[in-house]
Amino acid sequence: MVDNKKKIVGIGSALVDLLLKAEDDWVASLGAEKGGMTLVDNEFVEDALKKAKHPPEVVSGGSACNTIVGIGMLGGQASFVGKCGEDEFGRIFTSDLQESGVEPLLFTSSAPTGKVLSVVTPDAQRTMFTHLGASTELDPQMITPKLFEDAAVVVVEGYLLFNPDLIMATVQAAKTAGAKISLDLASFEVVHNSRALLDKIVAEYVDILIANEDEAEAYCGHRKEEKAVARLMENAPTAILKVGERGCFICCDREIYRIKAQTGGAPLDTTGAGDLWAAGFLWGLVNNYSMEKCGELGSACGYEVCQVLGAKIPEAGWQRIKSLL
Q1: Residues 275, 271: Cα–Cα separation, whole Å
Q2: Banded model confidence at residue 189, pLDDT cuts 50, 70, 90
Q3: How far, in Å, CA of 247 to CA of 236, rounded?
Q4: Kind and range of the H or E element at 29?
Q5: What is the mean pLDDT of residues 268-282?
Q6: Where in the chain does DSSP place strands (E)?
Q7: How far apart (Å, rounded) are the C-alpha atoms in residues 321 and 325?
Q8: What total number of domains does the chain contain?
């Protein structure tokens, strides 16, 4: 980074994750394809929980939120912008942010807090049932440059592309505030369904573009690493291609850095792996670490979150990550 700002602000869906372990047949009983994400209503989630053998673990969630919580746990200056309900889940969400060292910049609604029932099967695959709830009510008129005051980076959730007015208000306010903009492409479905808007935002606003292999193929039209990396480099000053267990490529100022993935135990659950990778990378970036070190921190965070259920790294994991510093 070229200035002394350290603060990172995230904006996205304020959701609570309801984490369950279950067998394949239980997932099938809910009428969904294993490994997918299905939008459902609040009643569906409540009915599913009644059928579960055990109560779920409840933690704050949402892609940008997971990244910002990771930055807070690393000791960074972090804030999160979203909208939740005036209910018990909303209070859990707010409390979880505060306990993670994150400043909540939350609007509230009479609608229920958004929630994701995340079911993890024995093969570590997750199947998600999402009720967006109050998170969909975040009004573009609420998004002003003041929210991003003193921010070095604003983390924009790729899923905001489904709300064109909101994402445009966000990137314009962030730029007015003088912040860099980091955009994770979120999923290949997001890329396919929002292509024209995505091209405009990347061309005019995005400073840091993050994609995995599937997202990069949808965006660049190439599966081969070399071609995808070259295409991503054309579109953003800093671009990252994550290639799973093979690590990642970081492209910055026309230089390409190949970062190895951290290895060790087999993954228990991949929930939040990309989100926490971004937390380590962005924390390193605002603290002026080298690209190699930023990538190493991202890899460590992504590895540690895969060793637990859900997107929350335990204290022992954070201590291992911090030992790299």
Answers
A1: 9
A2: confident
A3: 20
A4: helix 24-29
A5: 92
A6: 7-11, 15-21, 37-39, 57-61, 78-85, 102-109, 114-120, 126-131, 151-156, 180-184, 208-212, 238-242, 248-252, 255-259
A7: 8
A8: 1
Is 225's pLDDT higher than 90?
A: no
CATH number at 190 reads: 3.40.1190.20
Contact between residue 235 and residue 203 where contact means Cβ atoms under 8 Å apart: yes
Amino acid at position 74, single letter: L
* Three-state secondary structure call for residue 228: helix
Instruction: Indicate whether 315 belongs to any domain.
Output: yes
Pick from 204-213, 263-272, 275-284: least confident: 263-272
Listed in sequence order, the DSSP H helices in 81-224 are 88-99, 164-176, 188-193, 195-204, 213-220
* Domain ranges, residue 153: 7-15+61-111+136-322
The mean pLDDT value for 214-242 works out to: 90
Would you place residue 86 in the very low, low, confident or very high pLDDT band (cuts 50, 70, 90)? very high
Angle 23-26-31 from CA coordinates, rounded to 5°: 135
Question: Quick check: pTM over 0.85?
Answer: yes
Are the C-beta atoms of residues 65 and 15 closer than 8 Å to each other?
yes
Residue 189: both structure tokens together: 């479905």
Asked if residue 266 is part of any domain, the answer here is yes
At residue 306's C-alpha, the angle toward residues 18 and 278, to 5°, is 90
Q: Minimal CA–CA distance to 161: which of 140, 144, 137, 186?
A: 186
Length of the chain: 325
269 in any annotated domain: yes
Sign of CA dihedral 17, 22, 23, 29: negative
- The verdict on residue 52 lying in a domain is no
- Of the candidates 290, 212, 278, 272, the residue with the CA atom closest to the CA atom of residue 246: 212
Cα dist. 220→136, 226, 237, 239 in Å?
29, 11, 16, 12
